[in-house]
Write a structure and sequence with these properties.
This protein is an all-alpha fold. The protein is 57% helix and 2% strand.
Length: 345
């Protein structure tokens, strides 16, 4: 397994952070997820089938200034410069220290690339925790660089109060923008920019309380969002990210200070609430009475690998990981559904 992920990263690091479609390059995340699922044999064949979507790596322009990096947050044209910046940071300090320094700077823009900056960083961290190879260190630089270059802030800032609810209750107070006839057009990032014209959404970030057990909060958030994924026949790709993003934060949280992890959890909730507000056409569903599928987790993994979609594989891995910590049937139902509904996407 160790040789496979590093071999895969050697291939993938010749490619850019985005695909020819303009969407984020999922290759490194899928490779790591397949290894986590115990299917390293599927990594290189999957990359071979995905390679037609790759873009070439962008070239560096000018080194980022230690004093002026804030001005380059969210500047896509500085993508390679951001990666080079983090390569230098990781050469000068332990990767854990780099995370603890930089994730708080990036957290307000956690929505970056529809959460793919967070996602790529989370997958890189899990791989690094096993072995800090040069390839995995560079992949962390790629993840943080993607986050910084696509940095995007949603409406609303935390007030610092701890008077909110659990995610399952709070989502009921998030106003939905559209009715059942809504048909989304364009990328998730382009769509959710519409919330800038919805001033009431700014209150959503304070609807939850992250002061309690953080692992439980993430579990409740992913459980709630797995139900939202199942309940929304439209925009289901967007809802995939409401599970994978907070689950990726779980991978980062042990390396952050307690206060920074809790603030990041609040912004992860905000990202999920944004997708719900813009894409959901139905109220939050009840999931307690769901009947889990009869297949074993290994069969669900096989279904995801056969379907082959980047979102299907990452979503299945996140659902099974969340289920292991919080055994609610909604995760298994959602994972099984993904192989059919998300499929090869």
């Amino acid at each position: 397994m160790a040789a496979t992920i590093d071999e895969a990263l050697d291939i993938l690091h010749r490619t850019g952070p985005d695909l020819v479609s303009g969407n984020s390059n999922h290759g490194p995340m899928v490779a790591e997820a397949l290894c986590a699922l115990g299917r390293p044999d599927a990594v290189l064949p999957w990359i071979a089938g995905y390679k037609s979507r790759f873009q070439d790596r962008p070239q560096t322009r000018n080194p980022l200034s230690p004093q002026g990096w804030q001005a380059s947050l969210g500047d896509r044209s500085r993508s390679a410069d951001w990666v080079a910046c983090f390569d230098r940071e990781l050469a000068a300090a332990p990767w854990q220290a780099v995370l603890q320094t930089w994730v708080p700077h990036l957290t307000p823009g956690l929505w970056a690339a529809a959460t793919h900056g967070l996602l790529r960083t989370g997958h890189a961290v899990r791989s690094l925790a096993v072995s800090a190879t040069p390839q995995r260190l560079h992949e962390l630089a790629e993840g943080l660089g993607h986050w910084a270059a696509r940095y995007q802030v949603l409406p609303g800032r935390p007030s610092g109060r701890h008077t909110g609810s659990s995610p399952s209750k709070a989502v009921q107070y998030v106003a939905r923008v559209h009715g059942p006839d809504f048909e989304a057009q364009g990328s998730i990032v382009q769509q959710v920019k519409g919330l800038d014209e919805q001033p009431e959404f700014a209150q959503a970030v304070d609807l939850v309380d992250t002061a309690g057990d953080l692992s439980w909060f993430i579990s409740e958030l992913t459980e709630t969002c797995a139900g939202l994924y199942l309940a929304n026949p439209k925009g289901f790709i967007a809802f995939v990210h409401t599970v994978t993003a907070p689950s990726a934060l779980r991978l980062l949280a042990p390396y952050l200070t307690d206060a920074d992890a809790r603030l990041a959890a609040r912004y992860a909730w905000q990202a999920c609430a944004a997708i719900y507000a813009w894409y959901s056409t139905t109220p939050p569903p009840a999931t307690a009475d769901l009947t889990p599928p009869t297949e074993a987790p290994e069969a669900l993994i096989d279904r995801a690998v056969v379907a082959g979609g980047a979102h299907t594989i990452k979503f299945t891995e996140a659902c099974l990981r969340e289920y292991a910590l919080h055994p609610k049937p909604v995760y298994l139902v959602a994972a099984r559904d993904a192989a059919e509904r998300v499929g090869g996407v």
